[in-house]
Amino acid sequence: MTKKIKHKELRSHTKHFTVLCDKNPLWKIPRIRLQFLVTILLSFMLAVGGFSLTWHMMPCAWKIARHIPGMDLDRETLKTELTERAKNYDLPSSENNKQEQAAFKPFFDCLDSYTGIAIYSGSERYFRTQHTADIVHSKNWNFFTNMIFQITYSNYASVLPLNGIEDYFQIKVEFKNETGELYVSSFHNSKLTIPWFLFSIGVALFLLLLLPLLFLRKKVQDIGILKDHILQMSGGDLNHPIASMGNDELGVLARELDQMRNTLYTNIQQEVESRRANQDLITAMSHDLRTPLTILHGYLDILALGRNPEQQSEYVRRCLQKTEDIQQLTDRMFEYSLVYEPPQSPLLVPVPLKNVQHMLSEHLDFLRLAGFQTSETIAPLYGQIEGDETSLKRLFQNLFSNVLKYGDKSEPVTLQISQKNDIFQIILSNAVKKDLTGIESNRIGLKSAEKIAKMHHGTLTFTQKDKTLFLVEVTFPLP
């Protein structure tokens, strides 16, 4: 039964929660999006910083890499070889003399694809001929070098000559016909520069994606945790609290789910306790009612058979006594159910104050018949209150039943009725019996009366002075 209750409560609260989400959609609070934008901004700054730091480490890397055989140009070896080869060649007299240029071309055969030479001569430094490094004609090489130049020129031009791509030096050699001045261009740096540039880009991309991926991973984990908790709740397990997940939409959702879990758990526990208490009450009442009913049935059988005519009046008196006992038991059951049943809002209609006074006067008359002394003070009454007459009768019946049960008949019962400052006030006081042995008191009647007063937007307070005087004050607002 408990599991069915849990599923029923869960479906009801889930439906209510869904309606709340539809009316107040969490996505209108852009906290996750703001966090994600901040994460993207930080990632971009981190990526730029990582690229700049990595790129500026290239000179240190080149100092190490250039010692690898074949990585850098061996200047001394090249100088020696060019000096020896120059002795066998005549320097072209002009850059336009194609025949001399063709004859001089084998001079450059000793150069690798990363080395170029431009030759000048004379005091006026006339240009004679040149050989461009083969690597310069590569489309891929030009693409990457142009990209490096565009991206890094502003902060890298001072690190290595010609933006870190080209290095050069100057030597003089003696040709067969004259002295030439050679400007040697070396692009060996590009063996490391281009891969290092790609490595720096990779570092930047890694840093750019790192924080967003960690952010998304955390949110996916939170969603997974919420999913697990929802599955636990749908299975009836409401004992595991949902951990806090921050102040974003997922955090709000987690807190609301945990609040719903607590509410469900409390409601289910209250319902289980209420069912158990009601079952215990029914069991106890059934047992208590069986005895007077059995006795009553016996006396009625005797009366029906006409036995002992001289005792019939006594049997009638005993039957009346047992009916009073049964009435008290049923009243207790009714009062208990009224106190512990879910709150209900009665239909309140205008009730004239004269009608309320009449209800109270009837109860005073009954007290007089029961042997009590009464005293009443009633101020002029006019107007009305918002109330339910049936509920008001129950309230007054509970109050005066309390007087009948615990009141001392040797002292007067006083009733004061007045209205002032938009308040209708009733004060009932009575002396308490000195000997209450055997009289059970659970104050269910007073709790029931207090609940009815609250239903009418009023108040009920009671005090007992020195265990001898009991006073009840009831107030209702006047419209």
Automatic annotation (TrEMBL):
Pfam families xrefs: HAMP, HisKA
InterPro entries xrefs: HAMP_dom, HATPase_C_sf, His_kinase_dom, HisK_dim/P_dom, HisK_dim/P_sf, HssS/ArlS-like
Catalysed conversion reaction: ATP + protein L-histidine = ADP + protein N-phospho-L-histidine
Principal location: membrane
GO MF: ATP binding; phosphorelay sensor kinase activity
Keyword terms of this UniProt record: ATP-binding, Cell membrane, Kinase, Membrane, Nucleotide-binding, Phosphoprotein, Transferase, Transmembrane, Transmembrane helix, Two-component regulatory system
Location of the Histidine kinase domain: 284-479
Limits of the HAMP domain: 217-269
UniProt topology in membrane: Multi-pass membrane protein
Protein name: histidine kinase
